Amino acid sequence: MHVSVHDVTVGQFSRGLTNLKGVLQKGRAFAESKKIDFSVLLQTRLAPDQFPLARQIQIACDVAKVCCATLSGLPAPAMEDKEQTFEEFMERIDRTLAFLQTIKAEQFTSFEKRTFTSHRRPGLHLEGRDYLHQHATPNFYFHVTTAYSILRASGVELGKRDYLGDPSWKQD
Amino acid sequence: MHVSVHDVTVGQFSRGLTNLKGVLQKGRAFAESKKIDFSVLLQTRLAPDQFPLARQIQIACDVAKVCCATLSGLPAPAMEDKEQTFEEFMERIDRTLAFLQTIKAEQFTSFEKRTFTSHRRPGLHLEGRDYLHQHATPNFYFHVTTAYSILRASGVELGKRDYLGDPSWKQD
Description:
172 residues, Four Helix Bundle (Hemerythrin (Met), subunit A)
């Protein structure tokens, strides 16, 4: 009654980011049909004191990258948060996906002994398992869902299937 | 390099639902301070064709309940979607949490052989592992995040800590 850390991290994050690409593609098609610059959507927020779409995409990528790097002990590739265009955000996601694909299941062997630290919580750390369940996983889905919601609230025709992608349904 | 299905389901869903209770409590305090009936917030949506807060709460509970019941083979307690008040929604969450607490780790022994079916996909099923990673987990966080976002977009003072709750930070 166990699942592999690779499935929970690389597997789930790769699916979520791939689905996010599809959501953003619908956002771009919507912007084009309305003759809106895509950057308008990138700067749209659900609340004035919450991050706009651009930052939601960057953080979703970072949570996936940092979680997989932290729990595997691999270095995380640096990314500069300089994206401005649709293409640059897609490339950010693709670079994150490419990093995830380099990680093999056995590289998570010592995940329980690895720890996560945050500049927001000096002097503290989360143990690997707690970090995965209590922080990285809910945080990843928070930012992917918020990116979806910003576009949906802006009028983009999105449904749950865009968010979930295409699960592996099998014939009965 | 494995984690238990109990931690991934009962553990994560229980934390997410408990944090959702805190988010709703802030929503109620906000409504009271503005002299708004809480039912106004329960009927608020991010988009006209998306479910309002009330339904987001019910679905978050149902995803947690159905996932744990499906993967453990236990019957899911029936819940009628009749809630109207803040107290009734909190009770719905508490009943869901109480069901989750009855499930022991070893009851997930056969989770890989269990399958999920949906009336929306007749003739199809998801295998236990695919259901967990591709459907139940992302779907649960979708509805918890959307409930949070509806309140945040309505003006409730919420931050990421309300969503993540209080992870088990340890002293270095």
